[in-house]
Amino acid sequence: MNFKLSVLAAVTALMLPAAAANAVVIGSSDGGNCYPFMCNDSGTSVGQSIHYQQIYLGSLFGGPSSFDTISFSSWTGSGTVLGGTYAISFSTTSAAIGAGYPIGPLANTAGFFTGTLGGAVGASFSITGTSYDFNPADGNLVMDIVVTNQDNVPNGSGNSYNWADYTGVQTTRAYDLSGRTSNGLGALVTEFNTVGTVPEPTTWALMIAGFGMVGLAARRRRVGAYYPS
Known about the structure:
- This protein is α+β, with helices and mostly antiparallel strands and 229 residues long.
- It is 16% helix and 45% strand.
- The protein contains two helices and 13 strands, in the order αβββββββββββββα.
- It has a six-stranded antiparallel sheet, with no helix packed on it. The protein has a four-stranded antiparallel sheet with strand order 1-13-4-7, with no helix packed on it. A three-stranded antiparallel sheet has the order 2-9-12, with no helix packed on it.
- A hairpin with a 2-residue loop joins β10 and β11.
- It is globular.
């Protein structure tokens, strides 16, 4: 392999994802909780049912990454997601685990999913949306869910539950339920299907330098070329 091809191979390697797809599960499975997918305590199926926020310890991701699918497990092995419209977004924050409602300040906010959900689910259910790039250097991760026109199924009336974290070490929740706000334990155990990593600035610098070396090598070959007569 000549010098030009060697450099090109090195640069190409830098452009490849730094890590394969991986599942990051955040939260300790200590019990069940039904907000915001499996019960509606607003008393109505019209308008906003709940504004739910959940904060995750950013360092648990291990580094810059992106995800396009989130999953939640059923506490009882199966269950029902209440019909309604769910608007899900993600942000970063300097706030710590246990922050009160509303969690903030928020930065790097991006929409993840907006649409209708509902129906019977098995041991777990997943939501796939627009890929979100997360860098733990920006702080902790916040999931924000606004639910509207949700089936009117109060907690304790035969609704289902998801696995939830009651330690408050890795994740906590905060929410507004028809004007009543609360925060603390019971955040949903969440699995993030990471799909790659965000290149560090040093990686981009190496890539640019590598392309420059390829161009320089090509120029030198043209200048020093010998063509027999």
